[in-house]
Amino acid sequence: MEFNQQTFMAGLEQLKETARLQGNMLTKEQLEEVFGEWGLDARQRGLIQDYLNRNNIGIDEPADDREKLSGEDVSFLSMYLTELGELPHVTDGEKRAVMMSALAQDKDAQAKLVEIYLPDVVAISKLYAGQGVLVEDLIGEGNVALSMGVTMLACVENIEEVEGFLMKMVMDAMEAFIGDDSDNREIGEAVLGRVNEVNDKAKELYENLLRKVTIKEVADELGLTQDKVIEAVKLSADHIDYIEET
């Protein structure tokens, strides 16, 4: 099959969706089903492996999430799991009864169902560890989604779909949080880069001209508008001392 970038990326997304329903694990057979006819070269296979690694997806066995956990994550999980361990044990029969009552919009049952699935939220959070956010924050987002999910069970057709519905909401919430956090970090890094760029150029001009420089001089040197330089100065809390006050 001829390589097509769009189809290739769609295949990777398909694998990701499959993996997350299997505890972030794929089989070699599943990989072969998607890409077996492609005749991929070493670079393309490397792209697949990189993608799976970044998404904490294991092949033929669950990915080892312990390496993804920071010291702060480990400390939090230790305390949090101890607290969850004090919750009363629920049998499969009791769990099913709670689901049935929750489906009937019983508020107490909905609250109990949230409690039952708290450990599952922890397990899911580990699948998304190592992507630049704290497990504590992931669990927080997952718990909020779970609490919302139990109030939305009217759209579930039968009891067998309850768990899948709730866990998908938890996963979607964590993925959205990771995406939003990543976007915010990129914006923050871009802003910081602009401030540093303006500061470095203003310092360079100051040392060459032996005087404070103007906004226009810095803007001309950097090829920026004066408004962009003014914005950088404001973002630095006016701590760029090499520029004349406006």
Features:
single chain; mainly alpha
Fold topology:
Blueprint: H1 5-20, E1 25-26, H2 28-35, H3 42-54, E2 58-59, H4 71-84, H5 92-103, H6 107-127, H7 135-149, H8 162-209, H9 215-222, H10 226-235
Parallel strand pairs: 1-2
What can you tell me about this protein's structure?
The protein has 246 residues and is mainly α. The protein has 3 domains: 5-63, no CATH class; 66-175, Rna Polymerase Sigma Factor, Chain: A (Orthogonal Bundle); 185-235, Arc Repressor Mutant, subunit A (Orthogonal Bundle), CATH 1.10.10. Helices cover 67% and strands 2% of the residues. It is built from 10 helices and 2 strands. A two-stranded parallel ribbon has the order 1-2. The radius of gyration is 26 Å and the shape is extended. The termini are far apart.
Q: Which oligomeric form is depicted?
A: single chain
Number of strands: 2
Helix content range? 55-70%
Poorly predicted segments: none
Classification by helices and strands: mainly alpha
Number of spatially distinct domains: 3
**What is the H-and-E element order?**
HEHHEHHHHHHH
| Main beta-sheet annotation | 2 strands, parallel
CATH topology of the largest domain: Rna Polymerase Sigma Factor, Chain: A
Please name the fourth-level CATH homologous superfamily of the largest domain.
Answer: RNA polymerase sigma factor, region 2, helix turn helix motif
Identify the CATH architecture of the largest domain: Orthogonal Bundle
Q: Give Rg in angstroms.
A: 26 Å
Mean pLDDT: 80
Separate helix tally: 10
Order of strands across the widest beta sheet?
Answer: 1-2
> Between the first and last Cα atoms, what is the distance in angstroms?
63 Å
Strand content: under 5%
Estimate the global geometry from the Cα principal axes.
Answer: extended
**What is the CATH C-level name of the largest domain?**
Mainly Alpha
